[in-house]
Write a structure and sequence with these properties.
The protein has helices spanning 46-53, 71-76, 95-103, 112-118, 134-146, 164-178, 191-197, 215-221, 262-272, 285-293, and strands at 6-17, 20-31, 35-40, 61-66, 80-83, 152-156, 183-187, 200-205, 208-213, 225-230, 245-251, 254-259, 279-282. By secondary structure, it is an alpha/beta fold. The chain contains ten helices and 13 strands. A hairpin with a 2-residue loop joins β11 (245-251) and β12 (254-259).
């Protein structure tokens, strides 16, 4: 196989379902060793993009490659581990038996004890899989994804059903695995997880990548800061023309200015005498996500496409 520096490559990838273009001409490169988060609101196309990446569906146009070859080739070679949302518990087998069985399907698996340790389920090795809690089952699925010692780990909503402590333990395990030079791609509805654990964040909307960068770069792209103050009866005329201001939102008697230069905006407001109840804060990733996708006011729920 030709050596390539990319672990994942999408070139003009398109996937349609009827009139819906679930993935719409995506171009993407993920380098080896990167940890990348995939964000998107309901119906953005995340699940379809992951299915294309894993070779579960074929693109209608364009191409998807893993390590320079077709996805099926990388999967058959044991270079890919995946933790998907839809899975059923296997009855009457123990955790150790199930994870061990999966590991033996790969050419160079991790030792079973190491997999169970990484996933935080060593104490569950003798328990039946169909008698575990939702959070415990989620960690077993993570162990199954790790079992083959894959070079690319794909995690679809990996911390769903986990409590706060278990989520923290999960990300520590993922970091430990990634430190070995592996590539990790994960989707999540917890924006703070993307900000804290990804080297790079991709935002998918209507089947297209609308943002690609670090959490800080995404916040800057959406307007680097937020300046809020009480209108106290004054109008909003001219506020959008102040230095640095990108947008204006009014909530009740309070104005919220998204700005690229909060200092310049505040100085201009002071000149207008408009600094009652002044609040200055950096844009959050949540605000950046809503600005980038135009999804303000919509529920950020589980996607179906």
């Amino acid at each position: 196989m030709t050596q390539t520096r990319s672990a994942v490559s999408f070139t003009g990838a398109v996937k349609t379902y009827g009139a819906v273009r679930a993935v719409d001409g995506v171009d993407l490169e993920i380098g080896r060793g990167e940890t990348v988060a995939l964000l998107g609101r309901n119906g953005a196309g995340k699940s379809t993009a992951i299915s294309l990446l894993l070779g579960l569906v074929a693109p209608d146009a364009g191409a998807v490659e893993l390590f320079g070859g077709v996805p099926e080739q990388a999967v058959r070679a044991g270079r890919v581990g995946a933790m998907l949302q839809e899975a059923r518990a296997v009855p009457r087998v123990t955790v150790g038996e199930l994870v061990g069985f999966v590991a033996r399907r790969y050419p160079e698996p991790l030792p079973l004890a190491r997999v169970l340790e990484l996933a935080g389920i060593a104490e569950l090795a003798g328990r039946r899989v169909d008698r575990l809690s939702g959070g415990q089952t989620q960690r077993v699925r993570f162990a199954m994804a790790l079992a083959g010692n894959p070079a690319l780990l794909v995690l679809d909503e990996p911390t769903a059903a986990l409590d706060v402590e278990a989520r923290h333990a999960f990300w520590e395990a993922m970091r430990a695995y990634a430190r070995g030079g592996r590539t990790v791609l994960f989707s999540t509805h917890y924006l703070e997880e993307a900000d804290a654990y990804a080297d790079r964040i991709l935002v998918l909307d209507r089947g297209r990548i609308v943002a690609d960068g670090t959490g800080e770069e995404l916040r800057q792209a959406a307007g680097g800061g937020l300046v809020a103050f009480d209108l106290a009866g004054r109008g909003t005329a001219g506020l959008e023309l102040l230095p640095g201001v990108r947008s204006l939102e009014v909530r009740g008697d309070r104005a919220r200015l998204r700005t690229d230069d909060a200092d310049a905006t505040v100085v201009a407001l002071a000149g207008l005498g408009a600094i009652r109840g002044l609040e200055v804060a950096p844009a959050s990733l949540d605000e950046a996500f809503l600005a980038l996708t135009g999804a303000a006011g919509r529920a950020f729920g589980k996607e179906t496409v």
